[in-house]
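protien #1 (seq + structre)
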Amino acid sequence: MTLIATVPFLGSMKEVYWKPKSWSKINFDGQKFVVNDSIGTNFDKLNLEFDKYCRQQLKNIINSQIARLRGKNIEVELIYTDGIKNFPKRISTSVNKYLKEIGYNHKIDYKIGKYEKEWGVNEINPKNKTFTLYFNQDLIKYDSGPHIEYVVAHELAHVFHRDHSEGFNQTLHRLFPRKRTSEEFFKSGISRRFRLPNLSGNKNFSLILVAIICLILIYFLGQLLISFFGNLFSSWFYSGTKTQF
């Protein structure tokens, strides 16, 4: 196997190896990535396959987190009416029950993509009664799960509160008690400790390539110098010799 690159994944830099006879295009064994001949040392293909792998793995994590958080009971204050006036009432409910109560589609759709600034976004469509979440696929590069769950919980809390009020913070804390730790994680800029683009080539591989190019240049330069001085000495020798008859 040949080391060809390093990539950020699950909170640390992982090495990528090229193994020509590997069965999978790209595979992660828990420690390193292995790619086969269909990718080889083509960084464009490696970027595409790595992004696809990240999206699928993040989808698996988010699926399980949404399923668990949706059924978690929390206390929220809702506004009811008796036909004459409105009055608040505190109830214990879950995301599932609440969405059903307000007439929204019971299924929460979500999409994973690349976003420049947002880790997660929520979108409510009152007309179609749908609730859609959007998650940044780079999440999986910087964490293995806990901080991803914070982003999922944050967006789900917006089912109950559209703003970032104290009520929102209380709801988020009930869904995700480790809220403060994750907020510090994202605010600290830890997600910027990895250089982008996603792939950084192996230094040894690059040095070898540079060394080969230098040797080739030295060889051709040497040939030019030999030819130049050879012609120069030859010209000097014949011009300085007198022929006698």
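ok now protien #2
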Amino acid sequence: MKKFKLTEVIIILLVITFIRLIGYSINREKVSFVKSDVFHKISNSFQFITNIPKAKIENEELKKTNDELQTKSLEDDNLIKQNERMKSMLKFSKKRVEYNYIGADIIGNNANGLTIDKGEDKGIKIGMIAMTGQGLVGQVIAVGSNWSILKCLNNETFSVAALVQGTKADNGIINGYKDKNNRLLLKLDKLSLGSGIKKGDVIVTSGLGKMYPSGIKLGKVLTVYDDKSSLVKNAIIEPYVDFSKLEEVFIVESKDPSGIQY
């Protein structure tokens, strides 16, 4: 059997000790890594839990800011539309200086018509007409101290003398009309069979009878058809005014007592 020298034994022992130290060091690093990873995850979880109230507050603040922005956007949009309506009415009033115009807000809408917030206190009388920059709305049929009721142009019992804009021969009577789809439109009756009225023509008040100023827009022709049994031509008209979206109107008052008859 081979005998080892003392120096060889010492070298072997040092190698074995070194190998064990390496193994121990590796295991310790593994344990340290695992502990570090676990601690990191626990720390993150704890941080997430403690941040929940803060995140909730931030979400509520963001929602509040978003709601405020949406409200402001809607208000701005309403102001733009209101400004456009006022410009249209101002344009008409500059052309028709023979009338006064009393602004009124719509405060009710029912089967009887539209209710506005102006009445006898502002000089409103039965028979006066209401309009916007887009066209004729209707006529005052009832008046209180600070309110009035309007019968709308698209009411089936409403009638007004009308003609095709730019002509004098195509005269007829406009009435409210409900089609098979329950759309509230207008119907122009009693035109001669020889009338040149066509789709797309603009229909305006004729001024006959002195109940309505002439030249107020009523609507645009959708279809034309002959009623040969009565020897007349009729037309279906789409009103310019959107009665479902009305917010305010202007009541027309003649400056000349001998003008419009109320």
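The helical segments are 6-95.
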